[in-house]
């Protein structure tokens, strides 16, 4: 097994400088940090039921396709054989002479963890800036990027750019980009940026020649001149020229390199002597005013985005979860793939520990929030994991209706699954329904992944009145013991498998949940079966050959992948590279029925796709294994290499498979 070391890449100079630019950018958009007062100018389409989305065989508009999060689209006409051709490692040129069943490919960043979403004739993918699609952001500037491509031919349409947070890797790990998948409904899209913002965008970008937001003329960093090293002279000459009402040659070159070449005469006005100016004229063929600011060692050039900026995102509203209203402190990244129920938008905030991996900087900040998706107003918030957050919170919510009650299911950073009524709440608080501890009580949390207690990275899946969830940890923590649960969500209160007790004066006393270890036997503590348990079945291992010895292939390991279930057959990949196939119903005595496991011989980060009678799953070696669907089909019919690691999940829509590799997006079909 290859070890994961994806975070060891180092920032280059320009990426470091972009941290400084991020400070400026934050100050510029601070007026948009809260969106409670925003009134929508355009309503999104009416809510579409999960059944309509799944049965249509058409678009796949969010992670898992619907709020049920089950990656089982009703798509037909898919291919099971393809060849991506060859790519020159030095130039990147595509030799397609032997390519087969590849409609097109588009370049992504250098690291891609976001899953594709297909809606309205477009494909949306989260990645980093390794391809440098925007002139104002060359590829060596580190960003979180959400890219939009034309579904028919892969043409790049527009990009949403999130500059890196000045606080660095504790909040915004270098080169990780946008790690979530967006939610699309009609002409509106919602996603979480790497800066901890919830943003609503117009899926058309500015191609509809409208600036649709309440957020109008959003300021954007165009370029800058740095007073450091060889650039110091250019910096000094630029300041001197600005004082004389002119642009220096260095400023003009910098603007041209960013796609804003100066054409004709430019009028320079001083706003604050020696500190800020504005330049009015034609830049890149567009008449506009560019703000110029001297901030620390940099001279910043800033434009207001508008309908002329076709390659930019059109922002409707912004809510900054790290701002003073909420005060979230995300750990390494914010990675929630949001979902909705009617006009309600549900978000996991990613609140977590600091760089010490011990302290929780914002214990009062919420872990889960509900927003009005049209306005960005926060309707309720909840901080149930509290001080028991183990590391970070990078999972995503699901929404189902059980016995007529709509429930939003949130995986907590304490390893507990929480359910709340999926409504607007009361006085800013949700109605709590139940909680389920996904870790056995005697498991223990140790730094660096050496313990047995786990986070929840996967997304809960809802299937025929049951909830399915696996536990796992940050990929850097490596492999370890895992658990897969099937849960009955109709109970209330604590529906965990067991309860923690201690004896006081010969009486059992329930122990409040603890972060490191819930039950310590040496302290006269015990766990007992919970009479209110919601367990339908639990899978951690099975003795397939009956030899009373549990082999590697007979264990459920840590997983960051999500289940996919069809016709009572469940597939899930664990991080150790095993694909597990089980009966989704289990046995009446709470035991799993395991059909088989298959070793992919490489670690797997993603989740299975079940579509058109087949199962598709990728791995870190870049192989996509394809199985015929069904419990008896234990070996893949094909394993196709994609040229680089497949950290994401294959999706299918409109008779096409979409796979994002580490650095490319492929459209695969007849």
Automatic annotation (TrEMBL):
**Where is region (Disordered) located?**
39-66
Highest rank taxon of the organism: Bacteria
Protein name, entry field: Outer membrane biogenesis protein BamB
SUPFAM superfamilies, per database record: Quinoprotein alcohol dehydrogenase-like
Segments of skewed composition (Polar residues): 39-57
**UniProt xrefs under InterPro entries:** PQQ_b-propeller_rpt, Quinoprotein_ADH-like_sf, WD40/YVTN_repeat-like_dom_sf
């Amino acid at each position: 097994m290859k070890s994961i070391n994806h975070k060891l890449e180092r920032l280059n100079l320009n990426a470091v400088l972009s941290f400084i630019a991020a400070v400026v950018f934050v100050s510029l958009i601070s007026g948009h940090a809260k969106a409670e007062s925003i009134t929508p100018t355009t309503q999104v389409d009416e809510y579409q039921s999960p059944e309509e989305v799944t049965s249509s065989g058409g678009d796949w508009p969010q992670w898992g396709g619907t709020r049920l999060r089950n990656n089982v689209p009703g798509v037909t006409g898919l291919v099971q054989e393809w060849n991506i051709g060859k790519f020159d490692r030095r130039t990147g040129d595509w030799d397609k002479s032997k390519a087969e069943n590849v409609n097109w490919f588009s370049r992504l960043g250098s690291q891609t963890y976001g899953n594709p979403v297909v809606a309205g004739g477009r494909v949306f993918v989260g990645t980093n800036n390794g391809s440098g699609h925007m002139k104002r952001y060359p590829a060596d500037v580190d960003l979180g990027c959400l890219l939009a491509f034309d579904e028919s031919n892969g043409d790049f349409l527009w990009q949403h750019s999130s500059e890196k947070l000045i606080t660095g890797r504790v909040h915004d790990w270098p080169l990780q980009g946008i790690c979530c998948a967006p939610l699309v409904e009609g002409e509106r899209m919602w996603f979480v940026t790497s800066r901890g913002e919830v943003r609503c965008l117009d899926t058309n970008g500015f191609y509809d020649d409208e600036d649709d937001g309440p957020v109008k003329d959003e300021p954007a960093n165009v370029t800058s001149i740095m007073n450091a090293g060889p650039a110091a002279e250019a910096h000094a000459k630029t300041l001197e020229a600005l004082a004389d009402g002119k642009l220096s040659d260095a400023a003009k070159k910098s603007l041209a390199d960013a796609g804003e070449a100066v054409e004709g005469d430019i009028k320079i006005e001083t706003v604050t002597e020696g500190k800020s100016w504005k330049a009015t004229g034609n830049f890149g063929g567009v008449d506009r005013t560019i703000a110029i600011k001297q901030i620390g060692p940099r001279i910043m050039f800033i434009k207001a985005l508008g309908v002329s900026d076709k390659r930019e995102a059109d922002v409707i509203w912004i809510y900054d979860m790290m701002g003073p209203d909420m005060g979230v402190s995300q750990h390494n990244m914010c990675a929630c793939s949001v979902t909705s129920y009617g006009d309600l938008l549900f978000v996991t905030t990613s609140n977590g520990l600091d760089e010490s991996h011990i302290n929780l900087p914002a214990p009062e900040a919420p872990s889960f929030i509900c927003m009005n998706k049209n306005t960005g107003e926060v309707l309720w918030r909840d901080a149930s994991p509290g001080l028991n957050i183990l590391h970070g919170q990078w999972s995503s919510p699901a929404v189902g209706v059980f016995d007529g009650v709509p429930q939003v299911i949130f995986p907590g950073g304490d390893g507990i699954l929480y359910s709340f009524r999926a409504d607007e709440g009361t006085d800013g608080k949700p109605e709590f329904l139940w909680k389920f501890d996904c870790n056995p009580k005697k498991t223990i949390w140790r730094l660096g992944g050496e313990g047995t207690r786990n986070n929840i990275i996967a997304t809960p899946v809802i299937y025929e009145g049951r909830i399915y969830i696996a536990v796992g940890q940050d990929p850097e923590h490596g492999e370890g013991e895992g658990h897969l649960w099937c849960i009955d969500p109709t109970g209330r209160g604590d529906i965990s498998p067991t309860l923690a007790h201690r004896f006081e004066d010969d009486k059992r006393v329930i122990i409040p949940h603890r972060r490191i270890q819930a039950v310590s036997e040496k302290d006269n503590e015990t766990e007992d079966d919970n009479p209110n348990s919601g367990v339908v079945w639990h899978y951690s291992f099975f003795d397939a050959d009956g030899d009373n010895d549990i082999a590697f292939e007979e264990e459920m390991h840590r997983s960051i992948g999500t289940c996919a279930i069809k016709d009572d057959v469940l597939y899930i990949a664990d991080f150790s590279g095993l694909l597990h196939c089980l009966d989704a119903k289990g046995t009446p005595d709470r035991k799993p029925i395991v059909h088989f496991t298959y070793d992919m011989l490489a670690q797997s980060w993603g989740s299975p796709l079940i579509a058109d009678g087949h199962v598709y799953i990728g791995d870190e070696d870049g192989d996509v294994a394809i199985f015929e669907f069904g419990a008896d089909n234990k070996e893949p019919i094909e394993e196709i290499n994609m040229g680089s690691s497949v950290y994401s999940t294959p999706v299918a829509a409109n008779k096409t498979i979409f796979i994002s590799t580490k650095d490319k997006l492929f459209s695969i079909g007849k």
